[in-house]
Design goal:
There is one protein chain. 42% of the residues lie in helices and 19% in strands. It contains 28 helices and 26 strands. Strands 1-11-10-9-12-13 form a six-stranded mixed beta sheet, sandwiched between helices. A six-stranded mixed beta sheet has the order 14-24-23-22-25-26, with helices on both faces. A five-stranded mixed beta sheet has the order 4-3-2-5-8, with helices on both faces. Strand 6 and strand 7 form a beta hairpin. Helix 19 crosses helix 28 and helix 20 crosses helix 22. It binds adenosine-5'-diphosphate (ADP) and magnesium ion. The site of adenosine-5'-diphosphate (ADP) has 15 residues, from helix 22, helix 23 and helix 26. It catalyses: a D-hexose + ATP = a D-hexose 6-phosphate + ADP + H(+); D-glucose + ATP = D-glucose 6-phosphate + ADP + H(+); D-fructose + ATP = D-fructose 6-phosphate + ADP + H(+). This is hexokinase.
């Protein structure tokens, strides 16, 4: 019989595994919006979104409402990693009836305690922020707004359920005329525990309370907590797992003893998990085992066992001593004799066994719950392994080495993917509450400063309208022969008069020079479409910034290499040259370089015809089979290549290393070229927009810093707000400013972040990806030797978002000016037009394109703009321009 009883209370590993699985299910139910209200494991959001970083500082008050007393603490956080926290506390016993009295009486009592405490420490005038530890289930809406769902333990004060307890406390405090005491934060005791333990260096992200009751909280990914709006960062979730099993999910492991304990409790059917795990109930379970064994004549033969009918005769201290002490059986004997029983030696041994098995089960079940939480964290952070510290508080953990050992071992077995460090909490919740309060104050202050710093980068609709109007004005200035020289947007004629019509044929060479990659291509245009082969060649910085001769020699060498590899040495193929720098074009095959951009500065080229430079280099290299028929800008190439598929494509847009656009303008508007018939493609060179000072209001300090460090300072100012070569740099400068202001990385200097271009624009794309787990973001930052807390990561993401949003919006404002001008010139109420787009930033950034399109729709509501991604526009486009040119040059009646 004894064996059978012990066996019923022993849970094999497979069962614990199953319990873990059910806990996980219950947690998911609590997190989901649909099922939250009816979930047993409520997963209550706490609105605590961060763990302390040690810079928290100041004097705080804490009120802790406990089972039979109120504890008031004064805590001083020194702000130095919180190594030498000072605290003074006092406990006030509660009048016995108050727990069942009115809510007003309870809160008045608490406020009186605060009043007495403050006069006790002689500090009635100082301003205090107060943290309130309120260990009951609340529906929290903010850190300082929490409705009581229901009382528990011995409490049942009237008029409190459904009310905001922060307000009730604040009102009572005000009644005491303590106007300088502000209730800032309300939290559960479990959360307090987690916060205290976070002090010891690395943050604790989980807390487990193994005391009279049981509970657990942890830092969850906010996007998975459906009841809150927050979608980035983390939030501490108070699981309230004591009610796990109230829907019957644990019925297969409940023993008759558990049923008896439940029936005799004040809330039958509720808190089933807690009733197996909480120390309040362990003595009761043991008592029922003993009753049953005595009835079966397995124990206390000859004793009168009526005493076992009395609730609460086994105290948890006795049980722990029976388990823990060397003379456990002697302890058992003493305890049993004190109850008037006459135990035999064997009885004492058996009682000890029962105590062990009941406490072990509590530990194993706690481990099953904990491992569910840990596995969930590991999964939701998309990690293969999670290293985590778990703060543990409560008498079972502190005073029972058996409990501790089983908790550790079983958790390791059930969540093998997690490396768990259990951290015992020393007076958990009091300090923790002070820290939560301090953290929330610190975050509020920081938020304000971060907002201030980013404000100049945030553009209103009016700002964007102004940019649009300015761009329109600059376009007009650039097109007019008289004013062209004063315009920052050059509006260069390209001599491209039409987009392809699909009848172009032939085989062409193409070059793409003008940014990150230099490429040579062979393009075959036929009835079946376009086929091409290409190769990327590196242009070393030394050549980009060396002499023009060296640059063009290098280009010819690359062409020769390519022709050799492709077996094209013997043929003379027409060549289209995509040259993506501002050029004054004299004809389709004559383009004078106006200035370099995007990191190029080869000498002796500005003012020269680049086709001529290419031909001269060919001569130097004795490469005679080269026939350059057209030079085009990459915007034009992009428009042409998309135009091949969509005749509506009359705009080309690039957002890559640099940014630029071209569009088909009415010849009558182009004052810089003879003739009024038809249209011509205008290469806007909009990257230089603002170089005449018209955008000065929009440049921030960070843009200034980025500009100063470029090789073309003061030039291409618009491009430097938008394109891939610069966005990372802007972010880097903002991050440095935030560090300087102690708003990031705890103000710790970041030497690696001082390096120019270390923060690549592609990081923005990664960091802004939706649903990126916080840990992944932290990993990126780690590569830059930045130790980012979760708030740091959120701030970094916000900076990236602000910078890339501004870029997309500015691009949209300029594009709005273009489409509106096209619509007006054509005298249309509505314009439908397609934009051919190229550039890695546009293509790879997760939000750039849709933000651009959204803003454009808003700013140019009478234009329906479709965006078509160009597939290798600059290569294909150059060939098509060459094809169109050859087509035209061919004698009439040719093939
Ligand atoms: P180019 O404009 O020189 O023809 P690309 O269109 O490929 O070349 O653009 C290169 C630029 O794209 C680089 O400045 C780089 O910073 C940026 N970039 C590269 N990868 C990404 C990415 N994943 N997200 C955003 N920008 C990127
Ligand atoms: Mg390109």
């Amino acid at each position: 019989q004894v064996k059978r009883a012990l066996l019923a209370l022993t849970l094999p590993l497979e069962t614990l595994q199953a319990v873990k699985g059910r806990m996980l299910q219950a947690m998911l139910k609590g997190l989901s919006r649909q099922t939250h209200e009816h979930a047993n494991v409520r997963m209550l959001p706490t609105y605590i979104c961060s763990t302390p970083d040690g810079t928290e500082k100041g004097d705080f008050l804490v009120v802790e409402l406990c089972q039979s007393h109120v504890r008031i603490l004064w805590v001083n956080l020194p702000g130095n990693g919180n190594k030498s926290i000072q605290e003074i506390y006092r406990t006030f016993n509660m009048p016995e009836d108050i727990m069942k009295d009115t809510g007003e009486a309870l809160f008045d009592f608490i406020a009186e305690c605060v009043q007495q405490f403050l006069s006790g420490i002689g500090s009635t005038q100082q301003n205090f922020s107060l943290g309130f530890i309120f260990p009951f289930r609340c529906r929290q809406a903010q850190l300082d707004k929490a409705e009581l769902i229901s009382w528990a333990k011995e409490f049942s004060c009237s008029g409190v359920e459904g009310k905001d307890v922060v307000q009730l406390l604040q009102a009572a405090i005000n009644k005491q005329e303590l106007y300088h005491v502000n209730v800032i934060a309300l939290m559960n005791d479990t959360v307090g525990t987690m916060m205290t333990c976070s002090l010891e260096g690395k943050p604790c992200e989980v807390a487990l309370v193994a005391d009279k009751g049981t509970n657990c909280c942890f830092m969850a990914e906010a996007r998975l907590v459906e009841m809150v709006e927050e979608t980035s960062g983390q939030m501490c979730i108070n699981t309230e797992w004591g009610c796990f099993g109230d829907d019957g999910t644990l019925s297969d492991i409940l023993t008759p003893y558990d049923e008896n304990v439940d029936q005799e409790s004040s809330s039958p059917g509720e808190k089933r998990f807690e009733k197996m795990v909480g120390s309040l109930y362990l003595g009761e379970i043991i008592r029922h085992v003993l009753i049953s064994l005595a009835a079966e004549k397995e124990l206390f033969i000859g004793s009168n066992v009526v005493v076992l009918r009395t609730k609460g005769v086994f105290k948890i201290q006795q049980i722990l001593e029976i388990i823990e002490s060397e003379q456990g059986t002697a302890e058992a004997k003493a305890a049993l004799e004190a109850l008037g029983l006459h135990p035999s030696e064997q009885d004492c041994c058996r009682v000890q066994q029962v105590c062990r098995v009941v406490v072990s089960r509590a530990a194993a079940l706690s481990a099953a719950g904990l491992s569910a939480v840990l596995s969930y964290m590991c999964q939701s952070r998309m990690l293969e392994q999670l290293a985590v510290s778990v703060a543990v508080d409560g008498e079972l953990y502190h005073y029972c080495s058996r409990f501790k050992e089983i908790l550790q071992n079983v958790t390791e077995l059930l969540a093998p993917e997690c490396i768990v460090t259990l951290v015992p909490s020393v007076d958990g919740n009091g300090r923790g509450a002070a820290i939560v309060t301090a953290v929330s104050l610190r975050l509020a202050a920081q938020r304000q400063e971060v907002n201030q710093l980013l404000a100049p980068l945030r553009l209103s609709r009016a700002d964007l309208e102004r940019v649009q109007a300015l761009m329109r004005q600059e376009m007009e200035l650039g097109l007019d022969q008289e004013t062209n020289a004063t315009a920052s947007v050059r509006m260069l004629p390209t001599y491209v008069r039409g987009t392809p019509n699909g009848t172009e044929r032939g085989e062409f060479l193409a070059l793409d020079l003008g940014g990150t990659n230099f490429r040579v291509l062979v393009v075959h245009v036929s009835e079946d479409g376009i086929r091409m082969a290409n190769q990327i060649y590196v242009i070393p910085t030394a050549i980009m910034q060396g002499t023009g001769e060296a640059l063009f020699d290098h280009i010819i060498e690359c062409i020769m290499d390519f022709q050799q590899k492709q077996g094209l040495m013997e043929q003379v193929l027409p060549l289209g040259f995509t040259f993506s720098f501002p050029c004054q074009q004299m004809g389709l095959d004559k383009a004078v370089l106006l200035n370099w951009t995007k990191g190029f500065s080869a000498s002796g080229c500005v003012g020269q015809d680049v086709v001529q430079l290419l031909r001269e280099a060919a001569q130097r290299k004795q490469h005679l089979g080269l026939e350059v028929v057209a030079v085009v800008n990459d915007t034009v190439g992009t428009m042409m290549s998309c135009g091949y598929d969509d005749p509506k494509c009359e705009i080309g847009l690039i957002v890559g290393t640099g940014t630029n656009a071209c569009y088909m303008e009415e010849m009558c508007n182009v004052g810089t070229v003879e003739g009024d018939q038809g249209r011509m493609c205008i290469n806007m060179e909009w990257g230089a927009f603002g170089d005449n000072g018209c955008l000065d209001d929009f440049f921030t300090l960070f843009d200034q810093l980025v500009d100063e460090k470029t090789i073309n300072a003061g030039k291409q100012r618009f491009e430097k707000l938008i394109s891939g070569m610069y966005l990372g740099e802007i972010v880097r400068h903002i991050l440095l400013a935030l560090v300087e202001k102690q708003l990031l990385f705890r103000g710790k200097p970041c030497p690696k972040l001082q390096t120019k271009d270390i923060f690549q624009t592609k990081f923005l794309s990664i960091i802004e990806t939706d649903g990126l787990a916080l840990k992944q973001l932290q990993t990126i930052l780690q590569d830059l030797e930045l130790e980012a807390s979760s708030e740091d990561s959120m701030v970094v993401r916000e900076v990236c978002q602000t910078v890339s949003l501004r870029a997309a919006q500015l691009c949209a404002a300029s594009l709005a000016a273009v489409v509106e001008k096209m619509r007006e010139s054509r005298g249309l109420a509505q314009l439908a037009v397609t934009v051919g787009v190229d550039g890695t930033l546009y293509k790879m950034h997760p939000h750039f394109s849709h933000r651009l399109q959204e803003t454009l729709r808003d700013l140019a509501p009478n234009c329906t703009v479709t965006f078509l991604l160009s597939e290798d526009g600059s290569g294909k486009g150059a060939a098509l321009v060459a094809a169109v040119a050859c087509h035209r040059a061919e004698p009439k009646g040719g093939p």
